[in-house]
Amino acid sequence: MLIAAEAVVRCHDSVREALPALTVLLTSDSPELRAMTANLLAWFPESSATSIPLLKAFIAEEDSPGATATGIVALGLLGEPAAVPFIQRYLDSPIVELRWASAFALTRFGIADPAVVDVLTQVVARPPERPGPCRF
User: How many C-beta atoms surround the C-beta of residue 100 within 10 A?
Assistant: First the structure.
């Protein structure tokens, strides 16, 4: 079991080292690949000083609701309180995936005000018909 744990750590370290080169995938032609890249950034909080600005720029320009939602959730998982105002902008989005992602991400900061609870309740009661490439 120890050997497997060591292998996991080595894999994680290898991906962390490659992360700067992988961020170019946020501009891929594939919304699925863009979403997976945003998801990947969330698992390396030690790189958040670089990842958070990249994710904010990605979210602002992204046209796929599922990939955008993944980016918003990634911001929440990275846990930087300064990202809260950016995340809150999407709580009133006309796109259900973005409202859900915002509400979910805000709960990661301990924010569970009535607006957040309302969005989460609405999405549970009426989930999106066909989710896009959201990776969380």
Answer: 25
Residues of the chain with pLDDT under 70: 1-2, 130-136
Residue 130 pLDDT: 61
Residue type, 30: S
What string of H, E and C letters represents the secondary structure of the chain?
Answer: CHHHHHHHHHHHHHHHHHHHHHHHHHHCCCHHHHHHHHHHHHCCHHHHHHHHHHHHHHHHHCCCHHHHHHHHHHHHHHCCHHHHHHHHHHHHCCCHHHHHHHHHHHHCCCCCCHHHHHHHHHHHHCCCCCCCCCCC
